[in-house]
Amino acid sequence: MDVRTTIVFSSLALTYLTTLPLTPYVAQFLPKALPIVVLAVFAYLKLSAMPRYMVLTALLFSLAGDVSLALPFADSFIAGLACFFVAHLSYAACFATLNRQKLKTLSGGIISPSVKWLISFIIISFTAVMAIHILPASSSLFYPVVAYMSVITLMGLTAVWLAQTKLIVTGALLFVISDAILAQSVFKTPLPLSTFWVMTTYYGAQYCLTMGLVDAFLKKEHRQEGKGQA
Question: Which residues contact 47 (CB under 8 A, 6 or more apart)?
Answer without folding.
Answer: 55, 214, 217, 218
